[in-house]
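Q: I'm writing up a methods section and want to include an example of the input and output format. Could you take the sequence below and give the corresponding predicted structure tokens, formatted cleanly so I can copy it straight into the document?
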Amino acid sequence: MSSLRILTGFFSGPRLYLMPHRTDEEGNPRSPDPRWLALTGLLIALLLVLGGMFLIRKLGRAARLQDCVMSGRTDCAPIDPASVRGQ
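A: Here is the clean output for your methods example:
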């Protein structure tokens, strides 16, 4: 199957409607596609997972630094040599 045929099939598939659209028939409006709700829920869940992973990494880094400082060590955080020389 050629890639052009695949793309044509993809773009000519059923459309997702977020809001109801009018039809030619009186009193028979088209209802919103329920797949929009599923896609929105999936996007929200994905954002929550990524945000949670970001927070876990940041808080874990801060906890390791605090544990190092509380143990009395002085080499806990990396020091930038350029800032020490005043450049």
